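Record type: ASSEMBLY
Status: queued
Input:
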Amino acid sequence: DIVVTQSPDSLAVSLGERATINCKSSQSVLYSSNNKNYLAWYQQKPGQPPKLLIYWASTRESGVPDRFSGSGSGTDFTLTISSLQAEDVALYYCQQYYSSPLAFGGGTKVEIK
Amino acid sequence: QVQLVQSGAEVEKPGASVKVSCQASGYTFTSYAVHWLRQAPGQRLEWMGWINAGNGNTKYSQKFQGRVTITRDTSASTAYMELSSLRSEDTAVYYCARDARGCSGANCFGWSDPWGQGTPVTVSS
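Status: finished
Output:
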């Protein structure tokens, strides 16, 4: 089974500053036949289900602000919020969908400093 | 718009079973798979399994194999997740989510979007 690890567990960033979240998978999630990384990012606010932000590691979902970006390949990935807004306070999860069982990271809590 | 609406909160005793429904609207139900996931208090999101809504094929996490059954009713555009032999550790919010990738292979998985609103399940004597 692929294990997904996120860091840090939490971070506090000033409004307008950059927030960076890391995600590491225990095995590569890059499928060589199509050169795609099977990794997604989600945002979850209290009392709500997760909301998709990014898939294929770097493709932003329609309607997601462009301050959110995903990067990385193989086993190491990053979610960047380029200019933190108050509404970005939430938990963020990465997920691999390369193989069963699909697996999530432990989550990163983003707060305002 | 694409929407998944789940059944309401459940309270069950240890050893019992629970069945949660997930009604889809806004898209062709049989063209996409549906995932079932859960989130226990203070724990990470956990994938339980998946059903191809078109042909009914399922895939379960080994952790839940033998205790979970995922089915669907295409006439009602509804997927179901039944978990048996409940224990206190099964107390969680259970979610369904559409596999937005839209592939149909047995081991073809994608990202989850959208998600249902969640169904709290409490297991307590």
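Annotation: The mean pLDDT of chain B is 96.
Annotation: Chain B has no helices and eleven strands.
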